[in-house]
Amino acid sequence: MKALVIADGSKPLSKAEKLSIRRGLPISLGPSVCGRCVAAGGGCCTSEPGIFGPPLTRADEERIAAATGLTPRKFVHVRSVDAEEQRAWEEDVPSAKGIVVRGKVRSLARPDGRCLLLTERGCSLPLDARPLQCRLFPFVVRGRSLTVQPAGECLAVREADGISSLARQLRTSAQELVQLDGQLQEELGQRTPKA
Ligand code: SF4
Question: Which of 15-24, 42-51, 52-61, 72-81 bottoms out in mean pLDDT, i.e. has the lowest?
Fold first, then answer.
């Protein structure tokens, strides 16, 4: 039976945890709404086979590589996106404009419909190494306004009684979401970094 490594998703992964990920051993996180969602068989980190994970910026890839010790070719899936899909995507998440480059997008691989960084109790990455689009989900930032995208599978959305309560459940805040959205735009070259 494979060993189970317990990690706290709010801290950087230890050497032992990184080694476990490289060896394909399961890592378990403490209880969280995301962990409960995964345990119930739902969640934003799983989908039908053939649907891909969140699109990545190059900086996302570097942060994941540093946190896990994996090279990007182990966790990135490159695929073609047609103009219609790109347009729909940019309408849903305006700050993702620029993530499709010459008709291609680099996404987190989901070999069997499950993100390969997902464990039985949630994401194995420390919070600050998660892709920006994962950290923003299920929120959409438009200027200063914050909305929640249709996210029927998200247990946190089902349990929350408003945007503030949802942000608390997901250990974030409106201020942090606006900052993350700005970071996403910077990493996609839509605006220059603040000095
Ligand atoms: S990186 Fe983590 S939060 Fe993002 S899809 Fe994978 S398991 Fe889920």
Answer: 15-24
Residue 116: CB within 6 Å of ligand 1? no
Q: Look at ligand 1, atom 2, and give the residue with the nearest C-alpha.
A: 123
Answer whether residue 49 shows pLDDT above 80.
Answer: no
Mean pLDDT of 109-131: 85
What's the CA gap between 99 and 96, in Å, rounded? 6
What confidence tier does 51 reach under pLDDT thresholds 50, 70, 90? confident
What pLDDT sits at residue 7?
A: 37
Cα gap 99→125, rounded to integer Å: 22
Give the global pTM: 0.79
Ligand 1 mean position, distance from CA 47 (Å): 12
**Residue 7 Cα to ligand 1 middle (Å):** 15
Q: How many angstroms separate the CA atoms of 78 and 55, rounded?
A: 9
Q: What is the whole-number distance in angstroms between the Cα of residue 189 and the centre of ligand 1? A: 23
User: Closest Cα to atom 8, ligand 1: which residue?
Assistant: 45
CB of 108 sitting under 6 A from ligand 1: yes
| Virtual torsion, Cα 8, 12, 16, 22, nearest 10 deg | 100
CA 152 vs. chain centroid, Å, equals: 17
Structure tokens, 165: 């309560």
Residue keyed to tokens 């923003």: 136
